[in-house]
Amino acid sequence: STEELHARAALARKLLGNRLYILGHHYQKDEVIRYADVTGDSLQLSQIAGDQTADFIIFCGVHFMAETADILTTPEQAVLLPDMRAGCSMADMANIDQTERAWLKLQGLFGDSITPLTYVNSTAAIKAFVGRNGGATVTSSNAVEMVQWALGQKERMLFLPDQHLGRNTAVKLGIPLEQMAVWDPIRQKLELQCELDDVKVILWKGHCSVHMNFLPKHVEILREKELDRNILVHPECTYEVVSISDYAGSTKYIIDMIEASEPGSKWAIGTEMNLVNRLISDYPDRDIVSLNPYMCPCLTMNRIDLPHLTWSLEELVEGRVINRITVDQKTADEAVMALKKMM
Ligand code: 13P
Ligand code: SF4
């Protein structure tokens, strides 16, 4: 039963003491979050991982986050992901072969005028690619500063793998939509809306399948019904949604906005279901709904559940380290260059 699993997980957690540290991303289920020593967004958790001295770190989040934690911890520390199927469909939209091929083609078109940036929602191999080509990582909470930095380095930037975060951030900085080209990694083709010379931003054609479920019609329906409901979305939503919402920002920004809001205020939030549900229960005096009435779960985040966490904990108690995430040294060294620029 669930109670039995909770009792087993709690006992194993207690036995492991300070040899273990558990990180929990805001999109995790409540049954998992209650075991987290700290909760945070992906940037906060990477930074916290780097400061830990525990022998074992269980990352309750997705694969790319555990890779980043492994890169930032010592080789003696083991980072574990309770379920190896907890990937990220967005990170999987840019593999290293496609990226190297795209880079060659783009260099052919634009010469040495591009700084690559990658959203942290990418594999360690992509972070390493960016690091060795003079670029940096970004998260949704520092995208504006990082895009500004990249465009201060060279004439253009390539933004991987989320076209929406890239586009929304570039719009915030006043770059016209026509000056943003889209690189299609499947057709290996650049989709242009202006002359080649005028391109400022090259967006990788990737997206988050969760945030794509928030549509302009959801905003329009709410606007018609309730003028006083604030619409707050994550910048992985499309430009069409972000541009008609009231506020857009990272996971941390969304939480901070609700925390700072007035009791009685009305909100519709466009982000992952577990976070929206947690905000609804943590702030009962605010009127909070999901922007999409059907709610939008991230299926891979949700693969980390109580049975998998209990299994990881009990195996560790028995001295077995299961589902360890390791990044090879060369990849880690190059990825660190990109991560350090951001941090
Ligand atoms: P944050 O960087 O806001 O934690 O978002 C991570 C993520 O996966 C969003 O979909
Ligand atoms: Fe990846 Fe989207 Fe899930 Fe975030 S919400 S982990 S970007 S699939």
Automatic annotation (TrEMBL):
Its cofactor is [4Fe-4S] cluster. Its main location: cytoplasm. Iminosuccinate binds at H25, S42, Y119, V120, N121, S140, H234, P235, E236, T251. Keywords: 4Fe-4S, Cytoplasm, Iron, Iron-sulfur, Metal-binding, Pyridine nucleotide biosynthesis, Transferase. [4Fe-4S] cluster binds at C88, C208, C298. GO terms for molecular function: transferase activity. The keyword Iron-sulfur applies. It is found in: Cytoplasm. Pathway: Cofactor biosynthesis; NAD(+) biosynthesis; quinolinate from iminoaspartate: step 1/1. Binds 1 [4Fe-4S] cluster per subunit. It catalyses: iminosuccinate + dihydroxyacetone phosphate = quinolinate + phosphate + 2 H2O + H(+). NCBIfam families: nadA, PRK09375.2-1, PRK09375.2-4. Belongs to the quinolinate synthase family. Type 3 subfamily. Catalyzes the condensation of iminoaspartate with dihydroxyacetone phosphate to form quinolinate. PANTHER family: QUINOLINATE SYNTHASE, CHLOROPLASTIC, QUINOLINATE SYNTHETASE A. This is Quinolinate synthase. It comes from Metaplanococcus flavidus. The gene is nadA.
